[in-house]
Amino acid sequence: MSFNRKLLASVLFAGSLFANAASAQTEIKLGHVGEPGSLLALSAEEFARRVNEKVGGQAKIVVFGSSQLGGDSELLKKLKLGTVDLALPSTVMSSEVPLFGLFELPYLVKDRAHMARLRDEIVMPVMAPAAEKDGFKILGVWENGFRQITNSKRPIEKPTDLQGIKLRVPSGIWRVKMFQSYGANPSPMAFSEVFVALQTGVMDGQENPLAQIYPSRFYEVQKFLSMTNHVYTPAYLTAGRSWRKYGPEIQKALTEAAVETQPVIYEIAAKMDEDFLQKLKDGGMQVNQVDQSVFVAASEGIYKDFAAQVPEAKDLIQKAQELAKSGS
C-alpha cells in the first residue's frame, strides 16, 4: 500500500472512531415503566420527537419503556449513577424526597387545571429545588393520572369494602398508610410484576390510572373496576448525574421540550380516560362509581400525619387547597 493510501486509511479509521464516540456521547436514554400505548409511553415518545427535532442530530433521545432499564426505584438509582439519563418517576419520588408525598394525599388534586396551577406554584418553585439537592433535576411535570381501584373480589363503594383486600401499591409510604387506614392489606411491588401477581392470586387487586390499567391488560385478570379517583399522580421528567455532561444548547432543548409537552399530555390523558373506560367495560369489567365524600372523610388522618412528619407540608397543603378554590 502506498504512503498516501496508508495515510488515507488512517484518517478514515480515526474518523470512524471519532464518529462512534460522538454518537455514544449524544445518545440520551429515557427509561420508564409504562407499557406500549400507555400515557407514559406516548408522553415519552412525544417528548423524544420534539427534542430530536430541536437538536438536529447533535443528540438523540432513545426511549426504553416497559421497565427495560429497570423499575421506578432502580431507574432513580441509575439516574444518580448516570447510567440512565432521563426517567419518568411518579409515586416513587415520595420515597426519595419527602415533600413529594404531597401528591400521595387522597383527593388533593381537583382536576388537571388545578394540577397546572400546582405545577407552576408549588412543584417547580418549591419541590423541584428540594429534589435537585438529592441529585434529581425535574425538567417537566407530566401525568400518570387519576387512580382507580381494580380487584377480583367485589365492587369497592366505600373504604370498608377494602377490608382484607390484598392490594398492590407502588413504592411510597403514604399510599401504604392510606390503604391501611381504609382496611386493605397494601403491599408495594414493582409495576412489571403486577400482572402475574394478580393472575396467580398473590394480589387481589391494584390501583392505577386507566392509562396504565388498560394497556397492561389488567382486565384479563380483574373483574371489578371502582372509579375512586382517590389520588392524582404526576409523572416527573427527571434528569440525574449525566445532566452536567450536556452543553447549554442540548440542556435548553431538553428543558423546552419538557415544558412544551406538558399541555399536550393533559389533552391526551383526558381523551385516554374516556376511551379506556369504555374499552375496559367492553372487556368485561364491572364498573362502579363511589361516594367520594366517604373516602375524603376517611382520609383526614393521612393529612394530619403528613403535616406532622414532613417539614413544610402543612403550608404546602394549605397552598394546594387555596389553588383549588382559585380556579372555581
From TrEMBL:
Report the Pfam families cross-referenced here: DctP
A GO cellular component annotated for this chain's UniProt record is: outer membrane-bounded periplasmic space
What does the UniProt entry say about where the protein is found? Answer: Cell envelope
In the UniProt record, does the keyword NADP occur? Answer: no
What are the boundaries of the signal sequence? 1-21
Gene Ontology biological process: transmembrane transport
State the UniProt keywords alphabetically.
Signal, Transport
Q: Which domain of life is it from?
A: Bacteria
Report the coiled-coil segments.
none
Membership in a protein family:
Belongs to the bacterial solute-binding protein 7 family.
State the name under which the record lists this protein.
C4-dicarboxylate ABC transporter
